[in-house]
Every structure is written in C-alpha cells, then in structure tokens.
Design goal:
heterodimer, A: mainly alpha, B: about 280 residues, alpha+beta, two-stranded antiparallel sheet, about 25% helix
C-alpha cells in the first residue's frame, strides 16, 4: 500500500522524506549499518565505471519507438493497414485502441462515450498495466525521443556552463492536469490536444508535416536552452495519466541496495529522479525497493548501474513478496 | 559538484528559500504561458471563421470538435482521399478532419460510408448507414452569371485542366478504382456536369435502371438532389439553371467538377436545405 501512497505523492509533485529508522526493515538496516562502517572510496567507484556501460535497454527502446511509429506511417503510406490511425486512437489489426489521455479528454469534453471508445480505452489500459504505465512515454511517444536529443544538448551546454538549468516545481504538472481537465469540461473542447506535441508529431509523421510542428520546435528549444526535459517533467498530462496506470503495474524497476555504491549516476540520467530517491545512501526501506509509478521504465539507470542494483522486474500477482 | 558551483559562480549562492521562491514564480509563469498558448486555440473557433465542410455524419460542430480524438482513421479509409486534417490555425479544431470540396469532394465511392465506420468516437455518427442520409452542407449556385448552363454554353475537354489531382468514381469505367478527372474528357452540348456527376443523381439513375449500388435498394436516395431547369430559349440556345433540391447532401462533387473558375456552384458547410 505504501508503494501506491508514495507513488501518488511523487506523481503530484511531493517529495518523499527520509524514512524514520523504525520504518526501515531490519535487513535493510543491517546493510545501511554495514555501509556506514565501510564507506566506498572514489577509486572503487572509478574502477566500477572503468569498463563503461552498455546501452542495451536504450537501444531496445529506441528501436521499439521507431518501429511502432514507423508501423503507423507504413500502415497508411504503404496501405499495409496493420496499425491504422495515429497515437491518439488507432486500430491494430482491426482492434480498437485509444490513447488513455486523449480518450479521457474526449470523454470530459463530449460527456458521452461510445462503445468503440470504451473498448479501445480498456484494451490500452490493460496493455499498459502489463507494460508498465509510463513506459508509453519512453517506449512509444515520439516527442520523448526528440526530447532526449534536446536533453543531450542541454546537458552538454550546462556542463560547459553556457546555460544553467531552470527548474520548475514538480507540482506544476498536477496543476496542468487539473487545468486541462477543467478546460475540457467547461469549454467542451479537447484543449490539451491543441498543444500536445505527442499528437502533433504522430499526425505529422503519418499524414505529412504541419505548421503545428513549429510549436514542437519551440518546446525542444526551450528544453535544450532553458529547462531540462521541461515538457515531460512539469507539463504533460499524458505522463500523469500513464503514471496512474503505473501504480498497479507489475512491471517495475527494482532496487537492491546491497552492492550499490551510491554514486548517484542513475539519478543524473533519470527523467524523473525522485523515483530513484531510495538509491540515496540510507534511504532504502527494504532490501528490494521498487521505483515509483512516475518511472517511465526507460532503462537508462538499468543500463548505467555497474553493480546491477537496478533491474527490470515483472512481479507476478500473488508471487513471492520481497522480504 | 556543489563546490564547483560556488567557486566558479561570481554571483553569491542564493538561499534555499530564495531559490524556492524563484522556482515558484517560474512555475506560475510556465503555467500561465502554456495555458495561454493553449487558450489561443479558442480564437479561431470563437471567431466562427472556421467553417469547414466536415466528413459525412459529423455531429454539430461543437459536439464534433469535442468528440473527435484527432486520429485520422477517417482519412485513411477514404478511397478518393477527400478527407484532410486541420492544422494549428484551426485552434481547438487541430487534427480534426475536413473536406476541401473544390480540391477533392466526397463522392461516396465507398458506398458503405467508410469514414463513419472508421470513427472510433462517434464524431461521425454511427447512426448513418447510407450516403443519402448525410447532410454535410447544402449546394448553392453562388455565381449564376458564370454558370455555363445559365449562359447556354456546352463544355468540351477536361473539367479542371490537366494538372488537377481530384478523382471521381465512374461506375461504367471501374466500380472500385476512382478515375482522375484529369484523365476524363467531356463533350457536352449543354453543360450539366453538376447534375451529371452528382453522386445522389447517379444513384437515383442506377436505381431507376434497376441496378441499385452494391445491389442494395436501401442505397437508393429517395429525394432528388439537383435538377436543371430551362430558363430561356428565346435566342435559339437553350439556357438552363441548376436548381439544388432537398436531396442534396453537400458532398461537394458539383463544386469540384464545375469548370468555371471560381466555381459557380459551392457548398455551404453545415447549411440545411433551403427548399
């Protein structure tokens, strides 16, 4: 239960406080106690990272993202009709699929729901429960890929001290979530769809370029030069919607503190570093801790971790609980 | 990391409270900015300048924009590619489908209203089964003096020139493959293209001949959509005037095939029958 509670706090933009000693399981306390007595040296950390790391998960993810978006494009352009529509709603081999956030906005604006939309939404809901909620963001959303490249530029510029990252309060996304929901209900228009880079990009890829791409360009420039990953971190309600799905998803990134050197590289590459708070020394409440529902399951931390302390895990319902 | 920042930064490091205050102000600015940009989308729809011809079965404009999920599945199934998606200039109407009749009208080549069947949200109402049940708009002879029939003229050649991309289905040529108008010449003593190519009139003629579309008598439109009335024959040449009738569904074929520039007959999007 505390997983859901803490995930919700993170999704809405709150911070999880350092756990009190009595909240930490004895086995984890033992690890923390041992580590306090045997601090790792800088040389040890350098040695850990000397071999570099693989990009296994990132490559798999990029390929998947490109493949799915290409499938949309080819289904129309070459008329292979396997995945028709756009990311907002589609048919896969004839079966209805609807993006959860787009469907939500339509339901709020229109205030009526037809059966096809219920079918499409339910299918996609079950799919993303199994595949890990916000995995939609990092494995499917075309804006995410462009934003990753803009982010690489941002990080390089920041390293050279040419720019300084301007952060926003993470709670801003919750405010946007409520505002866009209210706007849909009150105006009766799917207001968010007007500026959604996900929808704009998906349609531009499939049906040809549009002037709306200028807006996507503006967002990317803002992220490259002003605020790192601003759209995904502080604005996008799609991420929030899939974040809620992630609350009940068995597919999670799991942390085992035993061998962790606490160098914190994972948090530096992470889009949502608050979900990796448990990797801070002394924070893990148990010997197995799951990353919160805001995690996009992108696998950058899994690729990076030299001690295998972060791993993908699919928890079978009713399976053995970690102790 | 923190030490580096202190060393290289000439400005004094801000207090935690001050940083939080600035972040809060920035967050409000971001909220206002993004909501403001999204709000700009209201301008085109509020101004009422967006008066698009929507695909068959589209709900009332407000309900249509509310329910449309902007996926373009209707675009993909249309055999004559009549449906396009609106760009950001349509504001809240971005990504919603429309028909530019002059460029490519809906000719109901599909018979089964594929766009309606493809729509996942009921924006194009599923209560519609046949082409004659739609009302996308209503045709109007907007420039009678330019109309070749009114002038008593015939028409010979390509209706829109050799460069025109638009297509139409001609049952007698191929039931399934629409023909580019640029490949289909006409030779008419008196121009009657708007009536001759009207999908509703074609269906009525097929039904009269005992060959309803797809062999389904339900496809037969009960009402006439357009007729040509003789207005004058005093100087030897017969002058005819197109008259739009209640059966017109506003598909836009007459507007597309009208050979004068700009078209003498146009569709008023979402207009109801005026007869």
């Amino acid at each position: 239960m505390s997983y859901i509670k803490e995930s919700l706090i993170q999704l809405f933009g709150g911070e999880i406080k350092k756990p009190a000693k009595e909240d930490i399981k004895p086995a984890a306390q033992k690890i923390h106690f041992y580590k306090k007595a045997n601090p790792v040296t800088k040389a040890y950390i350098e040695e850990l990272h000397a071999a570099g790391h693989s990009n296994k998960w990132r490559n798999r993810r990029w390929l998947t993202l490109l493949f799915i978006n290409l499938l949309f494009v080819l289904s129309y352009q070459l008329d292979i009709q396997l995945l028709e529509g756009a990311l907002t709603a589609s048919r896969f081999a004839g079966f209805h699929m609807a993006d959860l956030n787009s469907a939500l906005q339509v339901m709020l604006a229109f205030k009526e729901v037809v059966l096809n939309l219920i079918i499409g939404t339910t299918t996609v809901l079950i799919m993303w429960i199994l595949l890990g909620g916000r995995a939609f963001c990092s494995w499917i959303c075309p804006y995410h890929l462009l934003a990753e490249w803009a982010e690489a530029l941002h990080v390089w510029l920041a390293k050279k001290k040419i720019i300084e990252n301007k952060t926003f309060h993470r709670g801003t996304r919750s405010v946007f979530y409520v505002i866009f929901a209210l706007l849909a209900i009150i105006t009766g228009y799917t207001v968010f769809e007007t500026i959604s880079p996900t929808g704009i990009l998906s349609r531009a890829l499939i049906y040809g370029p549009s002037f709306a791409l200028v807006w996507v360009g503006v967002l990317l420039l803002f992220e490259a030069f002003v605020s790192r990953r601003a759209w995904c971190r502080y604005v996008c309600p799609i991420g929030m919607t899939y974040g809620f799905v992630g609350l009940v998803s068995p597919l999670r990134v799991t942390y085992t503190p035993t061998d962790c050197a606490h160098e914190g590289d994972c948090r530096h590459v992470c889009l949502v570093p608050h979900v990796l708070n448990m990797t801070v020394k002394g924070r893990a409440k148990d010997v197995r801790v799951d990353a919160g529902a805001d995690c996009t399951r992108c696998g950058l931390c899994v690729d990076l971790c030299p001690t295998d302390s972060l791993r993908f895990e699919f928890k079978m319902p009713g399976g053995k609980k970690s102790d | 990391m923190a030490n580096d920042t202190v060393k290289n930064n000439k400005k004094p490091r801000l207090s935690r409270k001050e940083r939080a205050r600035r972040e809060f102000i920035r967050s409000i600015a971001l909220t206002a900015g993004v909501v403001g940009v999204a709000g700009l989308g209201y301008y085109p729809v509020a101004k009422g300048e967006i008066n698009r011809l929507r695909p068959p079965g589209a709900l009332d404009e407000e309900d249509f924009l509310a329910s449309c999920i902007k996926c373009g599945q209707c675009v993909q199934v249309c055999p004559v590619e009549a449906i396009k998606l609106a760009d950001i200039f349509d504001g809240f109407g971005i990504g919603a489908p429309y028909v530019d009749a002059r460029a490519q009208a809906c000719d109901f080549s599909c018979d089964g209203l594929q766009c309606v069947l493809a729509c996942p949200t009921g924006s194009l109402t599923h209560e519609l089964n046949y082409s004659h049940e739609t009302r996308m708009g209503f045709a109007r002879l907007s420039r009678p003096s330019k109309c070749l029939a009114v002038q008593g003229k015939g028409f010979k050649g390509l209706v829109r020139g050799a460069e025109f991309k638009g297509k139409l289905r001609f049952d007698e040529i191929d039931r399934w493959i629409p023909v580019p108008l640029a490949e289909h010449e006409f030779d008419l003593d008196s121009c009657d293209l708007c009536m001759r190519l009207c999908p509703i009139e074609i269906r009525r003629n097929q039904c009269d001949a005992g060959k309803p579309p797809s062999g389904d008598v339900n496809q037969c439109p009960p009402k006439q959509a357009i007729q040509l009335l003789e207005i004058d024959n005093s100087d030897g040449s017969v002058k005819m005037k197109p008259e739009v009738l209640e059966g017109c569904v506003g598909c836009g074929v007459c507007e597309m095939v009208c050979p004068v520039e700009p078209a003498a007959i146009v569709i008023d999007a979402r207009a109801e029958a005026t007869v």
